[in-house]
């Protein structure tokens, strides 16, 4: 089952979307918003599944689903916490600045508390007041959980994952060093992120959802050119069950909490930094990583961060070449 | 005007509360929840003010307001960001561990993104699975804002402050050093915080709300004994306008965002560490600070962190000795 949100109030209105993302049906009689459905998932889910079946059989009123009109499935959420599950990525970034990565990073997940009061629509512009802030994309997988009790195990946490989607976790790279140096994590350096047009239930993902990971190439194009094709199921050190359990160690998580994978990153064939797509590699899911690889290999970063007018596309195709979650497509604009 | 939230669904139901906190009136015909009122504040506020006037004149159906039945005014919020505006406190904590505090901390606010998916009721127990986590209270002032556009100035941000309240920002001190050393800020070390029984509009606070600060002694009792009486309007380096503008520098803030002052802290009369109440000082708003002062003066911390069975009370009296925001009263319990 695929769920999306169309315009209508701060939280939009919930629609069930067809497998091919061409059609949708209003779900307002079941739950006005996705958050409302998540608040009462045990009741809402079967009713939504029936609606999805009716939509697939074309026996109910349908509307065309236009991704360009979609809001984020959760236009605002009560929690957004983002992991760094692809430790390869973390190690590369550290290596580029000559810093050792603690061994514990391979066993203890790194995660930050993000801002969730405004999740951008999938086609929203990225407003950038100052190009010197070093704007970067970060292509990631996210999951949405139901209520998770404090102290949940990995296995219990896995059971609580109800939806899967994608995010462009926008970062202001040049604000990060000074902000992290203050010791309290990201704040100004993480502006609003954009979510994929639809979120999908794990069971609808078939074999792509296994071991608590989403498998398949996470595709990233930068200004129309292939930039990233890393597999989200490869080199993910911590699966989503582990990430959710990490977040829930000391407190309950409310239904609708979004947990991110961190920037997807695959090692190169030799175990070292991955190559660009033009050189036969799978490329990168953020600009910081290609800059890191450039620094390691060539002594200096060449690829610039995002500038006004640049475009970013993020999606994952199914086995037939159709985007599973729709496409995040954003343009950087002055603000 | 004072607003509270009573039981009824995940977000509770909005009530207008009398000045003396003895009575309340259902506000469901204006807005079902406080978040709904904040979403449409320009419409909701005058209607709620009328209701408050009718309540004061006892011309509408009233119910007794029992703080013990109150939920947090926002049982879940879309954002909670907490500053460290009492730089004195930050400097003391650093001094105790022999670390220099950067000069920039006096001009650039320190703030972290907190978890807001579960805000505890004012009389909720603090569940503590492990006393060795070093559970601490932190008595603070909070403000709630309407929609704040990216790049708002201090003056614009001040105009957006619609409610004022108190928080017990619970911290797990012994988890903090390792977590902050990872570089991404607080996550497991900040379990759910509790909010005061009511939030109050700034204009109802009279002279206590001025210069973007709340003035008056923030009272903290620990196990029934006076522990803190620091004035929230004294030694607050950054006012709330500055804190909100800091948070909004790179992104919009959604209505209902809660911004905290950080632990209230006053210097001693000689400009150094403040004294305990028993020695004629104003005491402390968290245990970490008294431990810091003990370390500086005596070479070692004496006061233990919270243990199972300990109780914490946090409130601020008006000029007649009545709590303005009601009383946060929590007991630490095994979990």
From TrEMBL, chains A, B:
Keyword Iron: no
A Pfam family per the record: FAA_hydrolase
Ranges for domain Fumarylacetoacetase-like C-terminal: 80-332
Keyword field contains Hydrolase: yes
Fumarylacetoacetase N-terminal domain segment(s): 1-76
Keywords: Hydrolase
Listed InterPro entries: FAA_hydro_N, Fumarylacetoacetase-like_C, Fumarylacetoacetase_C_sf
GO molecular function: hydrolase activity
Domain of life: Bacteria
Listed transmembrane segments: none
Protein name in the entry: FAA hydrolase family protein
Organism: Sphingomonas parva
